[in-house]
Structure formats: structure tokens, C-alpha cells
Specification:
It comes from Lacticaseibacillus camelliae DSM 22697 = JCM 13995. The chain is of the alpha+beta class. It is built from six helices and seven strands. Bound molecules: adenosine-5'-diphosphate. Adenosine-5'-diphosphate binds next to helix 4 and helix 6.
């Protein structure tokens, strides 16, 4: 029998590369499938409530008009939830292929503007602890969105009249921003998962605090598109501290 000639090096490398591509394509398809199925599941819950109340009103609304206001309130709430969910899903999918422009800007100024805009609707006392000027290399809109979304989470999950501190400082060739609250905190086992799409702590669900579980996934996406990273650690003496790491501009002449 003739020996099978060994494939030339280039062919072997090409076929390995091809296999790797196929593998990552497969993983992408699995992830997309999971996303579509999670999204449908999340949309189905409010839709079921809406349809239930429509059916109730159809059947009993005429004889029992006293049912109408409550049912309408549920329909209104649940359709609002669906609208928020759809908007967040669209925001996420737009970001899938997005590229954002990064530029140098003063994040201390941005944080002060965000705080003065958000303070009137916040239950907490917002405090900014930053140098007068702190330059970063990122997308300003993304960082603004991220800060607003962390402040609005604090507003939902943290007791009123506590202090929420936004701080920032240079660390090596990076800048570290943090949003620290004095709320219930996030258990170690869930610290990475809170950034996953649709993930919510059971406590938030059981206390019926409204949310989609997409806020932190969007925030993480925005920060990574900006070339940064985000994580959450325990705050001292209690609560959570969301830490955002951003690049600092190279030249210190700024
Ligand atoms: P949503 O607020 O819509 O549920 P997020 O992605 O913004 O979605 O947050 C995911 C989960 O992380 C929340 O449901 C909540 O359980 C938890 N979480 C977020 N921020 C805080 C916080 N500051 N303190 C405690 N838990 C938080």
C-alpha cells in the first residue's frame, strides 16, 4: 500500500485555522440562540399578564366595571415593562457591531455634571470625590451612560438618604472610577454574574423592584467598547463598589 503523503505544513495550518473559525462560529450561534431564547422568555412574562387581563375584561368587564381600573393599571405597567425591555434589547444589539470613537476628556467634569443632573431624582446623597481635572481616553457618552446607570441602580437597590460616592483617581497608566453605595451589597458568588444579560439577584425579584437585568450588561458593553473594564467589589463598611477602569491619555501635557 502506498503511504499517504503528509499534508504540507500550510495545508495543516489552514485546516487548523478553519477548525478554529468553525468552532468560534458555532459558539457564536449558540450564544445568539441563547440570547433570543432568554429575550423571548423575558418578553413572554409581561405579555402573559397583559393577555390575562384583556381576557378578564372581555369576559367580566361589562358586568363588573369595578375590575376595569386595576386591570388597566396592570396592562399599562406590563406594557411599559415590555417597552423598556425592547429598548434595552435594541440598544444591546446595536452595540454588537458598534465601534465607538474614543477621545481624551475630563471625567471629573463629566461626573460632576452627571451628579447635578441626577441628584434631583435620586433618593441618595450623591458625592463626587475626584481631582479637579482627571483626563481619560474613552468615549464620553458611554462613560456618561455607565455612570447614570450605576446611579439609577443605587437609587433602586440602596436605602434612601445614604451616601453614594463617585470617586476617581489615576492608578498607573489607567484611571479608576468607582461608584460606591451603602446598600445590601452583592454576594461573592454573584459578583461576576450581575453583568450577564437578564441576570437579577433573587432579592430584587422577590422585592418586586422593576428591572430587566440588562442594565449592567449594557454598561459593561459600553465600557469595553471604550477600551475599559468594569467589575464590582465589596464596599467598606458595607454595600457595593462598582469599579471602572479606563485608559489615561498618553501625554501628561493635558
Ligand atoms: P436590573 O436593575 O434591571 O435588574 P441590572 O443589570 O442593572 O438589571 O442589575 C442586575 C442585578 O444586580 C439587579 O437586579 C440587582 O439584583 C443587582 N444590583 C445592581 N446594582 C446593585 C446595587 N447597587 N446594589 C445591590 N444590588 C445591585
Amino acid at each position: 500500500r502506498l503511504p499517504v503523503p503528509e499534508a504540507p505544513q500550510e495545508v495543516r495550518e489552514l485546516s487548523q485555522e478553519f477548525n478554529r473559525l468553525l468552532h468560534s462560529l458555532n459558539e457564536q450561534v449558540i450564544r445568539d440562540n441563547q440570547f433570543v431564547s432568554d429575550a423571548s422568555h423575558e418578553l413572554r412574562t409581561p405579555l402573559t399578564a397583559i393577555r390575562g387581563h384583556v381576557a378578564l375584561l372581555r369576559r367580566h368587564g361589562t358586568e363588573h366595571p369595578e375590575l376595569i381600573p386595576d386591570s388597566l393599571a396592570v396592562i399599562d405597567d406590563e406594557s411599559m415593562k415590555m417597552q423598556k425591555l425592547i429598548e434595552s434589547l435594541l440598544a444591546l444589539s446595536r452595540m454588537d457591531h458598534a465601534e465607538v470613537q474614543v477621545a481624551a476628556f475630563d471625567v471629573a467634569g463629566l461626573a460632576r455634571r452627571v451628579v447635578s443632573r441626577f441628584q434631583p431624582q435620586s433618593k441618595q446623597n450623591l458625592k463626587v470625590v475626584m481631582p479637579r481635572r482627571l483626563m481619560v481616553l474613552a468615549n464620553a457618552e458611554s462613560v456618561e451612560h455607565a455612570l447614570l446607570s450605576l446611579l439609577s441602580n443605587a437609587n433602586k437597590y440602596v436605602p434612601a438618604n445614604t451616601i453614594v460616592t463617585i470617586s476617581g483617581q489615576p492608578v498607573g497608566d489607567h484611571v479608576e472610577l468607582s461608584v460606591a453605595d451603602l446598600g445590601p451589597g452583592i454576594p461573592d458568588s454573584e459578583k461576576a454574574r450581575v453583568f450577564d444579560r437578564f441576570f437579577r439577584l433573587d432579592e430584587s425579584r422577590s422585592k418586586a423592584i422593576s428591572g430587566t437585568g440588562l442594565g449592567l450588561a449594557i454598561t459593561r458593553r459600553l465600557i469595553t467598547l471604550s477600551g475599559g473594564s468594569i467589575r464590582v467589589v465589596d464596599n467598606q463598611p458595607q454595600g457595593s463598589r462598582f469599579m471602572i477602569n479606563l485608559k489615561a491619555p498618553v501625554s501628561e501635557s493635558l
